Amino acid sequence: MSDDHVYLTLAEGHEDDTRWAYGTGFEDPLHGVDTTVPEGVDAGELAAACVALADDALVSAQRLAEWVTRAPELEEEVALANIGLDLLGQARLLYARAGQVDGTGRDEDAYAYFRDAGDFRNVTLAELPGGDFAFAIVRLLVLSSWRLAHFRRLETHPDPVLAAVAAKGVKELTYHRQYAAEWAVRLGDGTDESHRRTRTALEQVAPYLGELHTAYDVRDEVADVLRQVTEAAGLPLPVYRPLPGCGRAGEHTEHLAPLLAELQSVARAHPEATW
């Protein structure tokens, strides 16, 4: 199976002329959207869901930012940085919605910069150290596949704001997944060394796959993406071996606190600063 075949399969249903999502969506995705919490929607549950998804995006974006000046080529450095920017955009919208409905009135900065690690609800896979390029690609493939499947379901969420955020995110995440899939095939079907590293990355990611199942069970969709990519790359599917702990419950590895310390240092040192 060629790289193009993998791309065409995964991109099916998203045929538009935009090769990449970077720089799209400058219009306000919430323009004209009613921000009133719909009747029958629990505000606390809605806020918690928004915070968890925003935490996934923020922490993932911070890990991707570590590839600036470190990626194997300038083009990939720019690509990974822009994927991170897409995720930051999603995080901002989700944090803002949480602040609207949880009764605290907190803004996006309060959620991002002034909570400690134990208050974050991101999945564990997002916070793991960067590793090598193969690990970054495999993690991006898994997280973008999972998040895309989840956001597709959220497009019909009864809260119109969350549904609008999801609709905007679907286009971005489709291309994040495409980018990761193409690179995973290239690495897996490349040199002996790139094949070895990609196989190792799959083994490293495997223990964290179970945590990605939320109220929307997207196990089959994520598994199908991994099957397509690993078959094209000549790689084995990762064997699921779950680890204890759950980031959604605030149970994090020792890697999250220093990552957040770096992210939050300026805001905490100068809490009243403005642009």
TrEMBL record:
SUPFAM superfamilies for this protein: Ferritin-like
The organism's place on the tree of life at top rank: Bacteria
Family annotation (InterPro entries): Aromatic_CoA_ox/epox, Ferritin-like, Ferritin-like_SF, PaaA_PaaC, PaaC
Pfam families: PaaA_PaaC
Protein's recorded name: Phenylacetate-CoA oxygenase subunit PaaC
Organism: Streptomyces marokkonensis
Gene name for this UniProt entry: paaC
